[in-house]
Amino acid sequence: MVLVFAETQKGKLKKAAFEAVTYGYRTAQALGSECVALVIGAAEDAGQLGKYGASKVYQVEDPALEKFDSQTYTRAIAGAAKELDAKVLVLSHSTTGKSLLGRLAARLDAGSVPGVNAVPTTDGGFKVRKPVFSGKAIAEMEIKTDVKVLSLMGNAIQPEVVGDNVGVEALSVPVEAGRITVKDVERVEGTVPLPEAELVVSAGRGMKGPENWGIIEELAEVLGATTACSRPVADTGWRPHHEHVGQTGIAIRPNLYIAAGISGAIQHLAGVNNSKTIVVINKDPDAPFFKAADYGVVGDLFEVVPRLTEALKKFKAEN
Amino acid sequence: MKLLVCVSKTPDTTTKIKFTSDNSELDTNGVQYIMNPYDEWYALVRALELKEAQGGSVTILNVGPAENDTVIRKGLAIGADEAVRINADPQSSLNVAKQIAEYAKGEGFDIVFFGKETIDYNGSEVSAMVAELLDMPFISYASHMEMDGNNATIKRDIEGGVETLSVDTPFVISAAKGLAEQRIPNMRGIMMAKRKPLKVVPAATFDDPVATVSYELPPEKGQVKLIDPENMDELVRLLHEEAKVI
Ligand SMILES: Cc1cc2nc3c(=O)[nH]c(=O)nc-3n(C[C@H](O)[C@H](O)[C@H](O)COP(=O)(O)OP(=O)(O)OC[C@H]3O[C@@H](n4cnc5c(N)ncnc54)[C@H](O)[C@@H]3O)c2cc1C
After folding, report:
1. A164 and A201 inside one domain
2. Residue in A104, A136, A226, A268 to test binding to B, most B beta-carbons within 10 Å
3. Helices (DSSP H) in chain A: which residue ranges?
4. Where does the Electron transfer flavoprotein alpha/beta-subunit N-terminal domain start and stop, copy by copy (chain B) (predicted)?
5. Is A185 within the bounds of a domain?
6. What is this model's ipTM?
7. Tens of pLDDT, residues A94-131
8. Which chain A residues have a beta carbon less than 8 Å from that of B212?
9. At what angle do helices B232-241 and A301-318 cross, to 10 degrees?
10. What is the CATH number of domain B2-218?
C-alpha cells in the first residue's frame, strides 16, 4: 500500500497535498497496489483526496499534534505506516516534508529519496528520479528496502481528478509529545509562497535600488505572481531573504519565471532553470541568462517592465 | 557547551557538471571541492559564536575518505577546536547518518549542527535522520537562534513565513541563511589549524538502502526567442498561445 501524508494549513489541504496524492495514486498503479491518504489534525476538505486517487483518507487527531514538531509527527506517521502496513510513504518536499523524510526513513529503517520529480519505474527494481547538483543534473536512484520513503518536489506533477470524494476515517496511533514549543507562526499573507508559486517575477541588481521595486510588484500583481530576487539583492537588504532564489536560496520550478535585471550567474540559474518557461529582460545582449531563456527582451527594464504590465492588463481585460 | 558541527564536501558552486562516459558518476576531472556553504557559512560560524559567548568546544565531523582532510582543515582554520573524520565512503544518506549517530551517541553533545542541505545532492535528510537516531528534537532551516542557559529560542523558515519556537538542549539543528555571517579564515587561523587534532575514527558497517543508478543532464534549452522591446503585446501573446503559461 502507498500511504500519502497530505499536508494541511489552517484546517485545509495544501496544493501540495493534491499533487502528492496524484503521485501516490500513480505509484500505486505502477505497483498494482492501493493509495491511501493520511491527514493530521482538522481538514474540512480531506474527503476530496478521494477525487485524486486516495481510496481512503485517515485522520489522526491529538492535541500534541496541533503545532508542528518533527519528532511528534514522525511518531504518528510511522505509527500509521506500521498500522496500515504501508510499503511506500509519500510526503511533499516542503519544509514540513523535508523535516520528516529523514526522520521517518531512520525510524522505519527505510531507503528514502528526497525531492523526486517523476513516478517510480518498477521493472528491475524500484527507481525514482530527482534533480541533483542544484538542478544542474538529474539522478536516477534505486531504493532497495521493502519500505520506501519519498518526498515529491512541488509543481513536478499536476493534480488529476480520477474519482470521487471518499469518507474520512479516524485512525488511532500512539502519539507522544516532543520537546519543542512553537511560540509563534508569522506568514506573509495574500501571496502564494515561492516554492508553491506557478508564476514568479524576479529582479536583480539591475534594479539599481530598493525604491524602484514598485514596477516589479505591479507586474507581479497584474499577473498574480509571487516576487523573487537574486542573492546580492537579498544580501544588501533591498528585498527580504525569503525572496532569494538560487543555489544558496530557494530552488523553484514555476510555470513562468520572469527575470529582470539579473545576469544569470550559474548559482542563480541552479535554483531556477527547472522553470517551464523563462523570460529574461536585460539591457546587455550578452548576459548569460539569455542562454537559459525561452523568451528574451534586450532592453532597459525600466521601460520594458511597465510596458509588459500594460500589455498584460490589456490581455486580462480581453480574456 | 559541547557543540558538534557536521560538515560535508561538495563541488564548488561554479562547477560545470559532467559525468563519466557511462553516466554512473560525476566526472571529477578539474572539479574543485569546497566545504558545503550552509555548513561553513552558517552552521559552523553560529557554533563558534556560541562557544565564544559561553565557553565550551566546537568539534567538526566529516564522514569520508582521507582526501576530505583539506576541507576539514579549513573548518579548523575558521575556528573549530578539533575535528573527527569517520573513515568511510557511504553511498547513501542513511548510512552517513548512522555513522554520525554511532559516533555522537556516547559523546554528550548539547547541540548537533548541520547545514540545511548540501548543494550537490540537495537532500536535507541526513540531519533529520541523525535527530531520529539520537532521539532528539530537530529544528530545520533555522535562520536565527538565541541561547539562554540550556534553552534556545529559534526562528525557522517555513513556506512563506517564519516560525518561532523554544527548545532545551540537546537538539539537532539545520542552518539556513541568516543564522550567522560567513567568516574568512585568517593567516593565524590557518597556521593554528595545522596543530589542531584531527582524529580518524574507523567506520561501522551499515547497509546502503539506496543506490545511484545513473545521472543525466537536463535537456538543453532551444535558442532563445528575442522579442522587440517595444512590442510587449507580442510577448504576452506568445506566453498565452505558445508557452501556455498565462
Ligand atoms: C557560493 C555562491 C553561491 C551563490 N548563490 C547564489 C544564489 O543562490 N542566487 C543568486 O542569485 N546568486 C548567487 N550567487 C551570486 C551569483 O554568482 C551572482 O553574483 C548573482 O546572481 C548576481 O546577481 P544579479 O544578477 O542580480 O546582479 P549582476 O550580476 O550585477 O547583474 C545585474 C544585471 O542587470 C542588468 N541590468 C542593469 N541595468 C539594467 C537595466 N536598466 N535594464 C535591464 N537590465 C539591466 C545587467 O546587464 C546585469 O546583467 C552565489 C555566488 C556564490 C559564490
Report:
1. no
2. A136
3. 15-31, 70-84, 95-108, 214-223, 231-235, 266-272, 301-318
4. 23-210
5. no
6. 0.94
7. 999 999 999 999 999 999 999 999 999 998 899 999 99
8. 139-142
9. 50
10. 3.40.50.620
